[in-house]
């Protein structure tokens, strides 16, 4: 079968560099040791081919033979199943990792992402909705903080769920949202000190720098 | 193996009734025809046992033998794999449904949920962040609208991805956010006209009404 290919933008502005979601796929691929290639799609002019592969006009997507998958969570699940790594084989262990994979995205990123939209807008106005949104984020972070107490990783071993959760928390940390959550912060530090993350991060920076 | 059990709240206020996420599990279980029981956990006093099963203090969670899974996306994937229904067996078809399962949650609910937080707060102030958030929602809905053109369901057949996506869009529709998206609205109408949805919906209403 053909190599796995990640498609990401050819270029992005400086602000998202190091945070574009192709880093999740690069990281997982470095962890599992599968060969892969990285291809580019235009950032500034997103054409039909882009939307055929990623109907929301985002990146990344993964292709492998006749399979094309967008959504970083689906991509990581595919890579884990293809490699037999970062996801336990036994039904109970497998279900726990998949549960935390969804939780990183749907319980935590769902709170972090709107928070970052306001931060990137420079909007600090304390309207009632904004207070509710900030309360939503702090509640979610508080629950992750409690869960991480005494744990190195979300499940028994480092897994695809940790790639998602630590990357999501990393984005919160960028705006200093983890200052009251030491377990979350040390969890992120543990994750980003892995050689596979460091390589993925540098490769993403290099990829976008090439197009400057 | 023991029956599948869904745990949801014993009671909720009127506003979320018909929208509590146990409806996604009830709906899937009615579609696939697996036997199941529904148990309750206190809404007003969420204790240690609740957080052990659902570390964010939300509902539902699913138990089956020694397996306990929260996150509706993970629950639906488990139910599809357990029943062999609502998820194709071939690798390409399977990957497409899983991709759209994540997309409903992470590309669409991620935009709908913060929008509903502002709506439930009665907050209509047009701050820069709020405008960015509303733009995020309308972009995502616009992409779903384009994708649904000429399609009955997200993939070839009705799947777990449609349960998630239509339930997410249903919440947006509640605040009239679909008025400019006729494909989305007719997709929701098609989904909620299924007998399995109708039963799940009525069962949820009945469950909470019992505790009034």
Automatic annotation (TrEMBL), chains A, B:
Concerning Pfam families, the annotation shows:
GST_C, GST_N
- Do you know which SUPFAM superfamilies this protein is assigned to? GST C-terminal domain-like, Thioredoxin-like
**Locate the GST C-terminal domain: which residues?**
90-212
| InterPro entries tied to this protein | Glutathione-S-Trfase_C-like (IPR010987), Glutathione-S-Trfase_C_sf (IPR036282), Glutathione_S-Trfase (IPR040079), Glutathione_S-Trfase_N (IPR004045), GST_C (IPR004046), Thioredoxin-like_sf (IPR036249)
Q: Where's the GST N-terminal domain?
A: 9-87
Please name the PANTHER family in this protein's record: GLUTATHIONE S-TRANSFERASE GSTA, GLUTATHIONE S-TRANSFERASE-RELATED
Q: Which family does it belong to?
A: Belongs to the GST superfamily.
What this protein is called in its record is: Glutathione S-transferase family protein
